[in-house]
Amino acid sequence: MKKFLHEYRHFLSYPRNMRVLLITNLIYALVLPVIDIFVASYVMRNSHDVKMVVVYQLAVYTGIPFTFLINGFLLQFVKIKRLYSAGMLLSGAAMVVMMSLGQLSITGVGVAGLLMGMSFGLFWANRDFLALSTTNDSNRNYYYGLETFFYTNTYVIVPAIVGWFIEGTGARGWFGGDRNTAYEIVTGFVFVLTIISSIIVHRGDFANPPKSRFVYFRYHWLWNRMQVLALLKGLAQGYIVTAPAMLIMRLVGQEGALGTIQAAGGILSAFLLYIIGRTTRPSARIVIFTIGLTLFALGGLFNAMLFNAVGVILFMACLLLARPLHDIAYFPIQMQVIDIVSAIEHRNKFAYIFNQEFGFYVGRFAGCGLFIVLANKVSDTFALRYALLIIGIVQLLSVFVAKTILRGCATLSREIRLDAQVAAGA
Q1: What is the DSSP string of 209-264?
Q2: How many CB atoms neighbour CB 138 within 10 A?
Q3: Which residues contact residue 40 at a Cβ distance below 8 angstroms, ignoring those fewer than 6 apart?
Q4: 258, 315, 264: which is closest to 44 by C-alpha?
Q5: What is the pLDDT of residue 393?
Q6: What is the CATH number of the domain that holds 130?
Q7: Average per-residue pLDDT in the chain?
Q8: How far is CA 292 from the centre of its chain?
Q9: pLDDT, tens digit (0-9, with 9 covering 90-100), for 83-132
Q10: What secondary structure letter does DSSP report for 78?
């Protein structure tokens, strides 16, 4: 209890807006596992077609950059916390649309996916800018360590509860044994949580980006390197959101297994990640980044070699640590680059957040495209077995790109400080 109170007092030492943003993200963290995992499993269960799941995900990823663009113009007139709130509420509405489709079709799944993509676009565009504006380079390890602690715990607890509830509906005859009814009840809870998180974010006093141009086509060389890193990150994102659901539904067969597999070792890893964020310095980011990418590649190797229930468990265990470790390092690096490059180019910081989304989109499209090509040209089984390994190996290139970026950040930071000193002396 003393340790907990010490950590709570440490949390209170940070700026109020940063704390409001973290609490908002904690509530919404209860929603994201349902969106990421169980919407894909719903599509899989009702269509029995892995390609339909990938179509849904492509529609989601197409909606995100389009909404980033709309959000940039809306920020000229609408308060950022209202747009952030709208994104969270729209995710619940998109789930309602999916559950009301009845017979799934490519068109219906595509429309639901676009709506979900629009909700993510509003959510992530404004979340990224708020995280950038309410933190600095010295406290971003703590910010993302605590946020990752939230997300890792919810990715353990929520899938366990939801998975067992859905499976129990079919096994014990709740609600007439109709699992789709269980999905609809879960959707109702999701909608309530999005309302609560929307209310909390309005307690912050957040400033909008300046009213200025945010669409550019030429950037500093350091930002172009960052875009390569975004593309490589998007490569995994394009497939990793739906891969667990498809693998488990194919090799294990029950939604309850989603919860059981996610729960294994998850709580322990969450505390480990919090400690990493709480104690590490910015200089440790490349080590954390490398470990995360290596674990992802190792998980893909286990899945490819075994391709059975044990292989899925080993892959999920690796993913449980790999994904948050990667994020703890990636986002502070991204924000450090934005701080430096925006000072050099004298541009709105939202311009870089907007531009980076297209790097993610290219990578996500390539990741989904790889799966579709392998599924069509070889087989669904081959794609499920080897796509993760291929992506994991290619992603290891991110380590070398990140090292180049960090060296560039160090050099440019020194030049900016020197120029400032010269200007002050003059």
Answers
A1: PPSS----S---HHHHHHHHHHHHHHHHHHHHTTHHHHHHHHHT--HHHHHHHHHT
A2: 9
A3: 53, 56, 57, 241, 242, 245, 246
A4: 258
A5: 92
A6: 1.20.1250.20
A7: 83
A8: 15
A9: 999 988 888 888 777 777 767 777 888 888 888 889 889 988 998 899 98
A10: S
Place of tokens 């060389």: 221
**CB distance 118 to 63 below 8 Å:** yes
Amino acid present at 343: A
Structure tokens at 336: 């450090």
In a domain, 64, yes or no: yes
d(CA 225, CA 117): 26
pTM: 0.79
Residues 411 and 46: their CA atoms lie apart, in Å, by 54
> How many Cα atoms sit within 13 Å of 91 on the Cβ side?
30
Instruction: Return the pLDDT at 260.
Output: 56
Do you know the residue count of the chain? 426
Query: Is pLDDT above 90 for 223?
Result: yes
Contacts with 61 (C-beta within 8 Å, 6 or more apart), sequence order: 117, 238, 361, 364, 365, 368
pLDDT digits (tens, 9 = 90+) for 150-168: 877 787 778 778 777 877 7
At 100 the three-state DSSP class reads coil
pLDDT digits (tens, 9 = 90+) for 353-402: 999 988 988 888 888 788 778 878 888 788 888 888 989 999 999 999 99
Neighbour tally for 426: CB within 10 Å: 5
Q: Is 78 left (phi over 0), alpha (psi -120 to 50) or beta?
A: beta
Residue type, 217: F
Report whether pLDDT(299) > 60.
Answer: yes
- What is the distance between the terminal CA atoms of the chain, rounded to a whole angstrom? 55
Instruction: Give how many domains the chain has, as a whole number.
Output: 1
Rounded Cα gap, residues 409 and 407, in angstroms: 5
Q: Number of H helices and number of E strands within the chain?
A: 18, 0
> Is residue 197 in some structural domain?
yes
Domain limits for position 30: 15-204+219-425
The tokens describing 403, both together, are: 């090292």
| 147: in domain | yes
Which token pair is 353?
């957040």
In a domain, 60, yes or no: yes
> CA 403 to CA 401: how far, in whole Å?
5
State how far the Cα of 421 lies from the Cα of 424, in Å rounded to an integer. Answer: 5
Tokens 């709208």 sit on residue: 86
Strand segments, DSSP code E, in 12-102 are none
Q: List, for residues 17-52, the tens digit of each pLDDT value.
A: 999 999 998 888 888 877 766 676 677 677 777 677
d(CA 299, CA 296): 5
